[in-house]
Fold Ribulose-phosphate 3-epimerase.
Amino acid sequence: MKPIQIAASVLSCDFAHLDKELSRASDANMFHLDIMDGHYVPNLTFGQPIVLKIRQLTKIPLDAHLMVTNPENYVAPFASIGVNWFSFHQECVYHSHRVVQQIKSLGMKAGIALNPATPLSTLDCILPDLDFVLLMSVNPGFSGQEFIPSVLEKIIQLKDIITKNSLNTLIEVDGGINETNASLVIAAGADILVSASYIFGSTDYSAAIRSLRGS
């Protein structure tokens, strides 16, 4: 069994003390970047200047989740900054395969994100090309939402598909992850847990990250 990876979502950190916040959460395997444009989702977060600053402040891998209507426009700039993982919502592009190949050609891991109500069947023709699938366990757009329990069955089904087809695709789960449900998400088959407010709202970031891993 692969070790569980924790992606600390900086959306919930104190941006006025970004350097200290990243340092306090440095036990995470990666930093998750929620890029929202105010169109695909109702919220607006941050763009390339903040991503560049984060890259300058840490050597930990960066995991960019694009909740934008034109994710293909971000691929080259984010690759040049040094982003390592890049996922997008396929509803936002006309040619998913083309975007996936673009991401990979620039040295990043490519993933597709699925909203809670988006069926796994939308991945039928592209799953073998993906390094990871990001399953949303909340509806995207805001941090601090409650985990949607029905996503657990979705994780189980996706893990079964990956196993039966002998794929190396990883499952990342994002939304409402905390010490109460993390073990359920891991048991269902998740490889990477994204957590925002649970980590950055705690008094001890390292302890919160360890609790998500179950250690």
Notes: The chain has a mean pLDDT of 92. The chain has eight helices and eight strands. The beta strands are 5-9, 30-36, 62-67, 85-89, 109-114, 132-136, 170-174, 192-195. The radius of gyration is 16 Å.
